[in-house]
UniProtKB/TrEMBL annotation:
Native source species: Ralstonia mojiangensis
Identification of the protein by name: Branched-chain amino acid ABC transporter substrate-binding protein
Leucine-binding protein domain segment(s): 33-372
Cited Pfam families: Peripla_BP_6 (PF13458)
Region (Disordered): 397-425
Keyword annotations of the record: Signal
Signal peptide: 1-28
Domain of life, per lineage: Bacteria
CDD domains per record: PBP1_SBP-like
Family, per entry: Belongs to the leucine-binding protein family.
């Protein structure tokens, strides 16, 4: 986008006529925009997830741009959006297009960990080859611990709790639920689905050695239209709980199939249950307890959270607020100001070790692996009762009930990251 020239208000003709001479008109050039990009799915069966993240990201960017000083010395964010079609190859093409357009920050994460891993790898290699055109990847949704573990990168920051952290919070909840006795694992057949199954069995067994795991099934991601065969298999084992990392359409169709079979089961899910359509699916099924973990309980937060939630609910994309997405923009903005620079290397160095008292509570960006530590709250989708559930979602009178909370400091789990740092870092 070309720079916008703002001319000073001209002297009136009368004033100029009365002067011995008139100086040339003064002008000022707006600071160059800080180019950032959004890369996620905006078409296909899971497009509503990407659209929702985009609505949340725009809220954070609008707030940063609205401040009197903008982001830095009058400069403001300029956002470009790219549809990756839930494909790693399309994501890499979008990443290159964003870099070519001058993006310094890429926000992504809702398309799955394998897609994000490919982007992080590509960005890392690009930055090594092109030190003057570096880019940072800010991941607000993909939660495979490998992204900040064995495959960590200096150029990647995760602003969502990873799978192990989420499972720790859920395991803490399971400790208090004697009705959870038999668990069946049903997950999408990709890296994170397999990891959710593995960590669930490990951490839940440690928290509740008496829990029996009755079976395990993986299914293709985003391709199953009827989950009835999968539900029948799980139900036949006598499972009272489904451990599922499904998200988007895959979770909603699973809930529908169980409801159609009158299978009153509890689901143990990560943040996928906070996506569009899941509350509607539960309200239509009328049975089943969808328990999930996120950084807040939708509809039950402090005044600042509820104000932002109300703004997101007014957007065409829908009504599901993901506070960490806004927090991602805040963290980047704080780092730009701390570094007094828009150089991705300096931004990364400023982000490392950053501590912030945020609208979610105390958060810390670990330097060792670039994993954000933030609180995790376990909640269950339930009917609005005016007390424990005050706000309905998806156009229903169903919302979210808080079950338990785990502070960030209790989620500071070990990491396997051995980060390769660039020269001068």
């Amino acid at each position: 986008m070309p720079a916008v020239i703002r001319f000073a208000r001209p002297l009136s003709a009368l004033a100029c006529a009365g002067a011995l001479s008139c100086a040339p008109l003064a002008y000022a050039v707006d600071p160059a925009p800080i180019k950032v990009a959004f890369i996620d799915q905006l078409s296909g069966p899971l497009s509503n997830v990407g659209e929702q993240f985009l609505a949340n990201l725009k809220l954070g960017i609008d707030d940063a741009n609205a401040q009197p000083q903008g982001v830095l010395n009058g400069a403001r964010y300029e956002l470009s959006t790219y549809d990756n079609k839930l494909s790693a190859q399309d994501s890499l093409s979008a990443l290159q297009s964003a870099i070519d357009a001058g993006a310094k920050i890429v926000f992504t994460g809702g398309s799955g960990s394998s897609v994000v891993a490919a982007m992080v790898d590509a960005a890392t290699k690009h930055n090594e080859r092109n030190p003057t055109k570096r880019v940072l990847i800010i991941n607000y949704a993909s939660i495979d611990p490998d992204l900040t573990g064995a495959h960590c990168s200096f150029w990647h920051f995760a602003t969502e709790a990873n799978t192990a952290m989420k499972m720790r919070a859920l395991a803490n909840f399971v400790k208090t639920q004697p009705d959870i006795r038999k668990v069946y694992s049903l997950n999408q057949d990709y890296a994170h689905g397999r990891l959710w199954a593995s960590l669930g069995k490990q951490m839940i067994s440690a928290a509740r050695p008496d829990v029996q795991f009755t079976g395990e099934t993986l299914h293709p991601i985003g391709k199953v239209k009827d989950f009835a065969p999968y539900v029948s298999k799980a139900k036949a084992t006598g499972a009272d709980t489904l451990l599922t990392g499904n998200w988007g359409q895959d979770l909603n169709l699973l809930i529908k199939a169980a409801g159609d079979m009158s299978y009153d089961v509890r689901y143990l899910n990560h943040s996928g249950a906070g996506a569009p359509g899941t509350v509607l699916a539960v309200s239509q099924a009328k049975i089943g307890k969808v328990t999930w973990v996120s950084e807040w309980t939708p509809g039950n937060g402090n005044a600042q959270l509820m104000q932002m939630d109300a703004r997101v609910r007014q957007t065409p994309a829908g009504e599901h607020f993901a506070p960490r997405t806004v927090l991602s923009v805040e963290l980047v903005t704080d780092a730009i100001r701390k570094a007094n620079s828009t150089d991705p290397l300096k931004i990364a160095l400023a982000l490392e070790g950053m501590q912030k008292q945020s609208f979610l509570g105390d958060v810390t960006m670990r330097k060792v692996d670039h994993q954000l530590l933030l609180p995790q709250v376990v909640s269950t989708i339930a009917p609005v009762d005016g007390k424990t559930v005050k706000v309905g979602y998806d156009g229903t009178q169903w919302g979210h009930k808080t079950e338990s909370a785990t502070p960030a400091k209790d989620l500071d789990l070990p990491t396997t990251c051995k980060m390769k740092r660039p020269a001068g870092a």
